[in-house]
Amino acid sequence: MRLLIVEDEKRLALSLAKGLTAEGYAVDVVHDGLEGLHRATETPYDLVVLDIMLPGMNGYRVCAALRAAGHDVPILMLTAKDGEYDEAEGLDTGADDYLTKPFSYVVLVARVKALLRRRGPGPSPVLVHGDLKVDTAARRVHLGEDEVALTAKEFAVLEQLVTRPGEVVSKARILEHVWDFAYDGDPNIVEVYISVLRRKLRPGLIRTVRGAGYRLEAGR
Q1: Do residues 204 and 130 lie in contact, with contact meaning Cβ atoms separated by under 8 Å?
Q2: Does the predicted model carry a pTM greater than 0.90?
Q3: What pLDDT does 156 receive?
């Protein structure tokens, strides 16, 4: 499942992203309300963690805009404010739940899981591409009858490709989704992981599209 965190406190946002990633979720992070609205509109997220006090556009307006556009993604609002009026305003704009800072990380995870359960099972967590099967819930990969052992990062890179079969996925997108926007290391790290996946899976399964990115080719 993919979550979006829209929070302008960068340390908090990255801490939440790290924790939720460890829980097995794919997590994207932005720090601006307008960017959050754009991401939530363009990408099919399973849940949005949305701060209220944001630059560009506040969380109330982001939530209201998403609901007005027909998006029913569960929204968990975060705020440093406290009071019945603030909670009522957040829920009136279409939020599904509300958490006041400072909060317990354990409580946040419990709220996230409750909202996801409430939404229902959604699409199958097993993605099939020819003889390649990727179970995004159990984090397991099979090629034919054989299970392929992947590290968390290797799995995350493969997941970016298998969720977009036949499409070219850019190096920048992989960096942003698998590492994060704040990664300032060598971008060629993506090539290293692609090479490892080719060795562990099958030559020719992942094609390099020069100057554009990588594409998962038709499976057997």
Answers
A1: no
A2: no
A3: 85
